[in-house]
Amino acid sequence: MIRSFMAGAALALVAVPGVAAAQEGAKFDCVVKTATPDVKANIGVAMTGEIDEASREALFKQLGAIVDGCAAKNKVADANKGDYFDYNLARISREWLVTDLAKANLKADIVDKALDFGPRGANPDLTGDMTDEQINSIVQGYIAAGVDIDSVNEKVWEKVGAYAAATSIYWNKRKLLPF
User: Number of folded domains in the chain?
Assistant: First the structure.
């Protein structure tokens, strides 16, 4: 049951164009600094599938305008704009999900360790389903941290899966950006 919720959340996030993550530098920070708190919160909610398709499309257009402005300001090459959008969508989603998971007393770094995410990590590509091994690694990480996994509700597991997907996109798109 946990596997299907986490995998479903990962697929839902990957199905939309997007990615974002926390990095230093004007090119990496421009979108996050420019987007309003409401836009960032709405993106987080959208990544968990809690808004309708029309609202999500309007939100992505709004984000697209911010990304385009930052790309122009920071001279991001046309060839990199898609990855730049995805990176920023993932970054915003990831940062929102970290905070939201903390409200459920779950630490996102458990997922980072379980899946080896980070600047020197393996950063597995989660554009498809997570493997049973990846899901079990996350679950075992939470168990080792003292989490009663049976008490974690389905919505929270979906957010764990969405966090894993966003983090995968974040690191993998980040690697593709040449700055």
Answer: 1
* Domain around 123: 2-176
> DSSP readout, the chain?
-HHHHHHHHHHHHHTSS-------SHHHHHHHHHS-HHHHHHHHHHHTT-S-HHHHHHHHHHHHHHHHHHHHHTT--GGGHHHHHHHHHHHHHHHHHHHHHHHTT--HHHHHHHHT-STTS-----SSPPPHHHHHHHHHHHHHTT--GGGS-HHHHHHHHHHHHHHHHHHHHHHHS--
The per-residue pLDDT string of the chain (179 residues; one tens digit each, 9 = 90 and over) reads: 554 444 444 444 544 433 333 334 899 999 999 999 999 999 999 988 888 999 999 999 999 999 999 999 999 999 999 999 999 999 999 999 999 999 999 999 999 999 999 999 999 999 888 999 999 999 999 999 999 999 999 999 999 999 999 999 999 999 999 98
